[in-house]
Please model this.
Amino acid sequence: FYNRTKTGDVITRSTSDIEQVRRYIGPAIMYSTRALVIVIVAVITMLIISPTLTLYALMPLSILGVAIFLVAHYVHKRSEALQRQYAQLTSRVQETLAGIRLVKAYAREKTETEAFEEESTLYKSRMLGLARVEAAWRPIFVVVVGLSQVMVVWVGGRLVTEGVITIGNIAEYIIYVGLMTWPIAAFGLVISMMQRASASSERIYEVLDEEPDISDSSRTDYSITQLHGHVKFENVSFRYAQGLPYALRNVSFELHPGGSLAVVGRTGAGKTTLIELIVRLVEPTEGRILIDGKDLRDLPLSVVRESVGYVAQDVFLFSDSIGNNIAFGTVGASDEEIRQAAFEAELLETVLEFSEGLNSGVGERGVSLSGGQAQRTTIARALIREPKILIMDDALSSVDANTETRILEHLRRRQGQHSMILVSHRISSIQDLDQILVLDEGSLVERGTHESLVEHDGLYAQMHRRQLLEARLEAIQ
Ligand SMILES: Nc1ncnc2c1ncn2[C@@H]1O[C@H](COP(=O)(O)OP(=O)(O)O)[C@@H](O)[C@H]1O
Ligand SMILES: [Mg+2]
Model:
């Protein structure tokens, strides 16, 4: 759902749409109860005096009823379009602000401003359209009420001459019609409000009714509360959607508890996909993933996510302090634990140079971290959880080689406590691991230890030679 739906749209649904419902439901109930009581009492009294005259007096009002129905339908449609437009507008603002550096760097301010203006003009015109319909109510309704009074005087006059009713009765009728004016107006108003609210509730329910694509099911085995870190892929294939090529083809491997595994390959080889399968962000199209010998789909999702320390390829930090960013996802982490994690991620020294140390804010409200510092913050975030399976998806890409070596040394000291999966494009960082998988276009083309792969003289050996050469060239410069 979150892959398909723009963030701005979800924001609109959870703020503006809820506001629409909140604003209208309460008054709507109040007005309609009041209106109903007044109308019922007035109509009964009128019927007692003269059924014929009542019929004539109410005829124009029933036309009004039909009109209300038609207009309400229209308002509903318009409201929905309006809220959709508002969502679009929110998405645009949200994306532009999130990418503001890019917008500036590419000198796109003017285009973005124009696009925003276009969206808001559209929103304005839709809003005005709706406002016009609502404004048209008043005159229509005054005319209809007027018509009602004319009918009363005209038909009533004839009834008086026939001696069926008295002149006093006519006066009474005019007062009743007048009394019913407000309730009927309110009724129209209520219907239009209800329609607005219902258009918005539909949008809210779309979010609420959305089933997570991946969740626990009847087969989930809740007796499992802990993982040991045994990971096994059995002929796993995966594609993101039908019609798309396979991102992973028939991949099998096994990682024992406490062991370490490296995944290397060119960009787009399927490394991130393989990782997301283990964290169960996506599920295999074919084949099985076994954790501790059990099908991943049978394990409680919460246990899997708690036992895995996952450092994603894209760094994400909240606008909060560095310490809180590290402690994110760990309930009740002590300062000491935070310091320890920061230390192991080679972040502590850097952070202590900031005036507020671990309490320094990140992003909008504080220091702006370099790519490598941000990456190390996310590594600390994974380490503090003491995961049974530690997964780093190219998480050392922006960290310099020396720092990387030190982080890997810290990790080695933890060896045995967790299984480790490292995705890297830098061979120097993974050559000591137990097992190396080489992916190419979704297929597992080579596997083995560093030595055996170099000996094999395939894709891995080629990557290795090129990186050695690059390192030497760098050293010369
Ligand atoms: N959300 C997605 N929807 C469709 N295709 C995707 C998606 N994510 C990745 N892919 C495709 O799957 C393939 C493998 O991508 P990925 O696992 O990210 O590779 P790597 O991490 O090795 O660079 C690529 O061809 C990529 O274009
Ligand atoms: Mg990747």
